[in-house]
Amino acid sequence: MSDTPTTQLPKDLAAEKGMVNVQIDGHWIQVPRGTRMIEACKMAEKEVPHYCYHPKLSSPGNCRMCLVQMGMPPRLAPGQEPEYDEEGYQEIGWMPRPVIACANTVAENMGIRTQGELVEKTREGVMEFLLINHPLDCPICDQAGECTLQEFSVEHGRGQSRFLEDKVKKPKNVDIGPRINLDDERCIMCSRCIRFMDEVADDAVLGFTDRGTHTTLSCHPDRKLDSNYGMNTIDLCPVGALTSKDFRFQMRVWFLKETKSIDVNCATGCNTTIWTRGNEIYRVTPRLNNDVNSEWMPDSHRLAFHEVQGDNRLTDPMIKVGHSHEATDWDSALEAAVDALKQFEASEVAIIASARQTNEELFLSKTLADVIGTSSIATVPRTGEADGKLISADRNPNTNGAKLILGENAVSNLGSIKSGLADGTIKALIVLNEDLFEAAGFSHEDLGKAELIISSHIIANPTAHASHIVFPGSSFAEKRGSMINVTGRLQRLNQAVQAPGNARDDWEIIRDLILAYTGEKNDLYMLEDVIKIIAQAVPAFEGITLSKIGDQGTQLIETGESIPLLEREKERVANREIVG
C-alpha cells in the first residue's frame, strides 16, 4: 500500500477514478474503492494493532485486536435529501459498537476512529483475554524484542491482571519438525502459520485442535512441519510460539546488526536480511520485495550461511610445495602466479569464471582474459529442479550477468576447455569461485593434465587441493557487488561481516592479478570504480551505479522469465483474496 496521498482529487472526480473519500480520525483522505479499513488507516499513518491479519494471507478476523469505530451518514427518511457540509461531506453517524478493520472495506463518506474511549476499552479487553493464559516467560523467550504481544500489551494493556484462576497448561518445547519447535502455551491462535502452510506453501499440515482456552496448535496425525518453506511460519508468528532450532537461544535480537542483502543459492535472488554480531552470522531472514520473493524464502536457502562459517575456510594465500600447501603473503602469491602464467602461450591459458560471481568480478575476469590474451573463458552451469515457488531451476545467482558480460557462449566454452586439457592445447587454468569437481564434472585425471592451476575460493575444496596457487576469497556476506536474477532484475549484495584471516574481496584479487601481470599502477580503489567502467563498456548497464540499484533492485533487462510464487500471489490479489 502507498503512503498518505499528497493530493486530493475533486470529490466528484474521485468516484470516476475508483476512489472513495474516507474520514480517519477527523481527517479526510482518498483511497481506492475496496481497500480494507486496516490498510486505509495505514495510508493515513494511523496504527491499528493486529495479530491474525497479514496482507499476504487471507483475513479470518479471529484475533479481534484490530477493532475500530466505524461511522456512516445516517439513513435518510423517505423524501429527505442528504445534507452536506461546506467541504461537501455528509455528517457521519457513529456506530455504538466496534468493527474489525482487517476484513471490512471502506465506502464513500465512511468514518473510522482508531482512537477514543470505545476503541481503547475494546482493545484493552481483547488484550486482557490474550494474556489470561499466556505464560510469564518473556525473559527466556526467543521472541523477546520482536514480540508484538509485548509491544501491544504496553500500549493497550491494563497494567495489571484481574485473573485469579490457574492458567491453562499446554505442551511446551514440542518438536513439530526438523527445524522448528512449538511452545503451545505462547500461542495466541492467530492462525497465521496455518494459513501460510495452506495458502502459500501448499502443505496444509498445521491445524487447531480442541476448543476455547484448551485450543492447541498441532500437526496433522503422522505428519511433521518439514516443508522447505516451514521456517517462514517463524517469521510470521507474532509471539514466541514457533521458534527456530537453528537460532534458538543463540542471541538476543537487540544485539544483532541487520544488513540488507540477497540470497545467492539460485537465480531467484530472494531479498534477505543478514543478522550479525561480532563478525558472526546468526541468522538470515527474508526481506519484503514484491518483485522478487514477496515476503518468503526457502529454508534450504536461509540456512546455507553456515557453510561460510565452517572450519574449512581458506584464510591465507597458499603455494603448493611438493605435495602440500604452505601459507604465504599476498605479494609472494601474486608474483608466483604471474611468473607461472607467463611461462605459457596465451592460447594455452583458460579461465573458468563463475555465474556465482558478481557483475564486477565477472567484468574483471573478462579483463584478465583480455590482458593475458586468451579467448578461452567459461562459466559452470548449475541446474536443478524448480519447486514451482521460489527455487529456480538455475542454481547460479548471476547467469544473466555472466551472459551480458562474458557473452552468451560462456557456458558452452566449458566443454572446449575440458577438451583442451585432454589434448594438451590448454596447459594452465585459472579457476575463480568454482569447485570443478563438484559442479563441472572434472575428474582428478582431467586436472592432472594441467601444468598450472591457480584458483580462488572460500572453501578448501578439492579444486583448491589440486591447485598450485590458491587465493582465499570472500563469501556473499563478506563483500559488496551486484547480480542479475532470473527475471533480469539487477540487485545488490551488501557486506555484513569481514572475511576471515587474510582473505580478500574477490574483485580485489582479480584486480591485483591483472596489475601484477601488466605491471601497471592501481587506478581501481573502490568497487564503484569498477561499476563506472562496466556502465561505459556494457550497454545494458549504462547509467547504473551501486547507489542507483537501491535496496529493492532495478529492472535491467527482460528475460521472459517469471517467478511462480509471485504469479500466484498476483492472481490472489486480483481475486481480492489477499491485499498483497
TrEMBL record:
Residues 256-312 form the 4Fe-4S Mo/W bis-MGD-type domain. PROSITE patterns: 4FE4S_HC3, 4FE4S_MOW_BIS_MGD, COMPLEX1_75K_1, COMPLEX1_75K_3. Keywords: 4Fe-4S, Iron, Iron-sulfur, Metal-binding, NAD, Translocase. Pfam families: Fer2_4 (PF13510), Fer4_NDSU1 (PF22151), Fer4_Nqo3 (PF22117), Molybdopterin (PF00384), NADH-G_4Fe-4S_3 (PF10588). Residues 118-157 form the 4Fe-4S His(Cys)3-ligated-type domain. Its cofactor is [2Fe-2S] cluster; [4Fe-4S] cluster. InterPro entries: 2Fe-2S_ferredoxin-like_sf (IPR036010), 2Fe-2S_ferredoxin-type (IPR001041), Mopterin_OxRdtase (IPR006656), Mopterin_OxRdtase_4Fe-4S_dom (IPR006963), NADH_UbQ_OxRdtase_75kDa_su_CS (IPR000283), NADH_UbQ_OxRdtase_ferredoxin (IPR054351), NADH_UbQ_OxRdtase_Gsu_4Fe4S-bd (IPR019574), Prok_molybdopt-oxidoreductase (IPR050123). The keyword 4Fe-4S applies. Belongs to the complex I 75 kDa subunit family. This is Periplasmic nitrate reductase. It comes from Rubritalea halochordaticola. The lineage of its organism: Bacteria, Pseudomonadati, Verrucomicrobiota, Verrucomicrobiia, Verrucomicrobiales. The gene is napA.
